[in-house]
Amino acid sequence: MRRSRVVALSVLLAVLGSVSLATSAQAACSSGTFCGYDAASYVTKMYQISGGSGTTISLADADKDKTTSAHNKTTKYYCGVNEQLFADHTLYEFHPGEDVPSLNSTANNAIDHYDVKNNTGNCVNPI
Ligand SMILES: [Ca+2]
User: Mean pLDDT, to the nearest integer, of 37-58?
Assistant: First the structure.
């Protein structure tokens, strides 16, 4: 009986531990910035960026083709762009304040840079 209570308590602590980890990962993305993560549900933050409208923000080579989830904690639109040989394509337009826990199969693991815009519909070659 005592042993099963210890096991139950251990399981409860493990669950609480993972919840607080996920919460701290989200809290680590500051207001006014855009954060990209390597895994779904904002796990393993790779970058935290920001820029004015008209800015292009290139990701480090190590972070290209790896974004799976993202927080847009800015007031701007972020065009997630895939760089291709003949024409770049916007795979996903992140709206101001949008949280994306898991990108669709087109955009997942394909974004190379972001174009920052004040208004919707201004992303290059949207898919
Ligand atoms: Ca790419």
Answer: 97
